[in-house]
Amino acid sequence: MKRVDSDLDTDLLAARLDLAGTRCFTAAGAGHGRREALSDVTTRWLAQRYAEATQGRRLGGVALAAVGSLGRRESGPLSDLDLVLLHDGRSLPSDEVAALADRIWYPIWDANLKLDHSVRTVGECRQVAGADLTAAVGLLDLAHIAGDEEVVSAARSTVAHDWRANARRRLPELLEKTAYRHSRHGDLAQSIEPDLKEAHGGLRDMTVLGALTSAWLTDRPRGEVDEAYRRLLDVRDALHVVTGRGRDRLGREDHDAVAALLGHEEADDLLTEVSSAARTIAWALDSTTRRASQSQRARTLRVGPRKPRLRILGHGLFEHDGEAVLRSAQLVGTDSLLPLRAAAVAARANLPLAPQTLTNLAASPDLPEPWSDAARDLFADLLAAGPGLVPVWEGLDQVGLIERWIPEWVSVRSRPQRNAVHRHTVDLHLLEAVLEASSLTRDVSRADLLLVAALLHDIGKVRGAHDHSETGAKVAATIVARMGMSQRDQATVTLLVRQHLVLMELATRRDLDDPATMSAVADAVGGDLETFELLRALTIADARATGPKAWTEWRSSLLEQLTVAARARLDAAPSDVPDPALSAPAEISPEVFESVATGRPHVTVTAVDGGYSVIVTDRDRLGLFADTAGLLAAYGLTIRRARLQTHDQVAVDEWTVESPGGDPPEPARIVAGLVRLGGGDRSALGSLEKRRAAYGPGTPGWSPSRALVVPRGADDATVLEVRTQDRPGLLHVLGLTFARLGLTVRSAHISTHAGQTLDTFYLQEFGGHTMSPARVAHTVSSVIDACDGVAD
Questions:
Q1: Residue 492 CA to chain centroid, in angstroms?
Q2: Helix (H) or strand (E) holding 423
Q3: Per-residue DSSP letters for 470-534?
Q4: Residue 309 dihedral angles phi and psi, to the nearest 5°
């Protein structure tokens, strides 16, 4: 039967190609309504083709159905039509069904529409879905167009029933195929020429989300992820219009036209929007697949009630089924530090925070400004956590916590980089630089400043910035002031951000034998060797995070030559770490003095921001430092800082500690433990060995320790600076090492920055004599061996 043109033909043409002008793309929410309208027009047009093919007869057991974008009512201007002619296998002979299909397909081809078609019975749909995972997922969206609705309903319900019944068997295959697709097409959020459909975070992933929920394994996030999906569909539609082709890859040559059609001022704004939407979808998919996998494991038959398996992580967090969770939402309320603490704990354990936990943490109050010492410590711990930082940071970013801590982060979030050497958006590059910097923390005196500088070094890559280093330095100055850093630390971080390109430029573009080159290096770091070491580490981290084109053997060798020359030029300044023994002696009350005089230590515990101050007063003895440090660690406390001083054979040591279990330290328990240790009973330290066993060579974050003698540190003592990975019992090990060598710790300044210790010890021979050079060398070697587990 010859088809007669109708108004529907005109409507379809206008809906698919004319699109009523640019307004449909720029008006809020217009894209979604336009796609639904286009889908409705297309459905009516196809229903008319079906009516013409059947000559208006009502055929029982036969129907025309759609899958794909039309089935989901998401048709784009040039989307393919995925149609299925369904029949029950009884109402019409096979030859008549085939003839009917031809009468439907040919008019569609005549209209120059791309068509993917098939003819199947309900049973064949079931067979195909059972054998082909992609077909099964597609048939879940089967939608009626014309004909017998019951046959469409039967096919859809049968496929959905089988999908749910076989979900346990098919989920691993679905996840494997999804991972393979991602590996082939890459990460949409990090691509300059992204595949809007197949890449990680693309349109196809929303179909996978729908399949997971159809299996009744889990629900999926709503709201923001749906809006992100609509934004990607808008970009796809605009791409169809400007290219005149049903393409899914957004090429560089199409950026400007697509951006203009969508109302963006520049192409980078378009890519930022695409990247942000893709990250939201990718995060939703990753968290939903974890939910689905957990649901599958929960279906294992067992006798009696199923109790969740929880592994204590500390500070109210537990590991449950591959995620970090809060045991109770009641922990959220007045504690502004809880999100930072939870993030640091989860990242160190290389676990993502569970979605509900993130939602609960987002309800925590804002950090006070300026930040407290505890907040800065926790933030540095988070940055130093290693590979677990990236997924935890992404979760925090998705619920808005990052921009509450660092409002300036919004300007670089998902910001593209068109430089060919860069692999990532600005924000991910900054996180990658932090990861690279974490492996260089032994080279610097302040790991926390290095990591913060790595996080902020490209914070100035915003629209309109002609010199992102100078712009970034101004932004960084605002951020570190908000963080409550000291004036000196603020100046150091700001300098690092401003000068982060200088060393590589000098190394690759200047004559390294020219004294003027070394003068330029000295000027860049203010003549300070420690600042130079920080800038060198930042330079290496930035280059490694950028990609192999930015960190080559040639560039590495030139930077090393520059480093050797600069170290010879710059002179290390004397230690500016105050010697606690030189400060005014702590005032000891008569009651405390009487207790110490009778051989019983005195301990006071005071709550401070983020932890507790534990002051131990006792008669000085060989090994007191080791015993106190070991006892605090054995009781599960984390030592943040310590200030140790001895006057007239009385030690007054102040330890700042955290309690992961939440309970404050018990003074009486500490006193009893010190008395037992002083009497030779070492049983109080029994639990410490188990905790120490989890650290050492081969564990994440490990690298060789360093022990440095500080030149001109003191006239009557050897000043030793120890840099190593912080871990339970470390100070106990160091104290035992000093005691075995017969050395007295006259005073010490203990601090931990970003998971790395910066401990300064003033050492003397027992009796107060200074150490010989040979003894100093032996001590340095013994300390390094002790820190690295070679000798305890």
A1: 26
A2: none
A3: HHHHHHHHHHHHHTT--HHHHHHHHHHHHTTTHHHHHHHHS-TTSHHHHHHHHHHTTT-HHHHHH
A4: -90, 115
Q: Reduced to 3 states, what is the DSSP secondary structure of residue 319?
A: strand
Closest of 76, 11, 70, 71 to residue 258, by C-alpha = 76
CA–CA distance, 29 with 784 (Å, rounded to integer) = 63
Do the Cβ atoms of 723 and 352 come closer than 8 Å?
Answer: no
In 73-123, beta strands by DSSP E: 81-87, 115-121
Cα atoms in the Cβ-side hemisphere of radius 13 Å centred on 500: 35
Kindly report, residue by residue over 127-171, the tens digit of the pLDDT: 999 898 888 998 999 999 999 999 999 999 999 999 888 888 888
Residues 42 and 86 in one domain: yes
Q: Residue 324's closest CA among 388, 379, 401?
A: 388
How many other CB atoms are there within 10 angstroms of residue 477's CB atom? Answer: 17
Q: Are 376 and 338 in contact (CB under 8 A)?
A: no
Q: How large is the angle between the packed helices 468-482 and 487-498, nearest 10 degrees? A: 160
pLDDT at site 21: 42
- The residue written with tokens 């890459």 in the block is 186
**For residues 323 and 224, what is the distance between their CA atoms, to the nearest angstrom?**
22
Q: Which residues pair with 706 in a beta bridge?
A: 723
Does residue 476 sit within a domain? no
- What letter represents residue 409's amino acid? W
Q: Provide the domain count of the chain.
A: 3
Q: Which domain holds residue 58?
A: 7-165
Question: How far apart (Å, rounded) are the C-alpha atoms in residues 336 and 714?
Answer: 41
- Residues 6 or more apart whose CB falls under 8 angstroms from that of 589 comprise none
pLDDT at residue 117, as a whole number: 92
pLDDT given for residue 14 in this prediction: 54
Q: Which of 298, 320, 349 is the last residue of a domain?
A: 298
145 lies in the same domain as 188: no
CA-nearest of 695, 711, 722 to 779 is: 722
Examine residue 713 and state whether it is found in any structural domain, yes or no.
Answer: yes
Angle between helices 447-456 and 426-438 (to 10 degrees): 160
Question: Which strand (E) or helix (H) includes residue 786?
Answer: helix 773-787
Omega prior to 370 cis, within 30 of 0: yes
- What residues of the chain score a pLDDT lower than 70? 1-32, 295-308, 329-331, 420, 571-587, 687, 689-702, 790-792
**Across the strands, what pairs with 118?**
84
Give, in order, the Cα–Cα distances in Å from 709 to each of 394, 721, 763, 769: 41, 6, 11, 17
Spatial separation of the C-alpha atoms in residues 732 and 629, rounded to whole Å: 5
In the beta sheet, which residues pair with residue 641? 656, 751
Instruction: Give me the CATH number covering residue 37.
Output: 3.30.460.10
Cα distance from N-terminal residue to C-terminal residue, the chain: 93
DSSP letters, 327-386, are S-GGG-SS-TTHHHHHHHHHHHTT-PBPHHHHHHHTTSPPPPSSPPHHHHHHHHHHHTS-
What would you report as the CA-atom Rg of the chain, rounded to the nearest whole angstrom?
Answer: 33
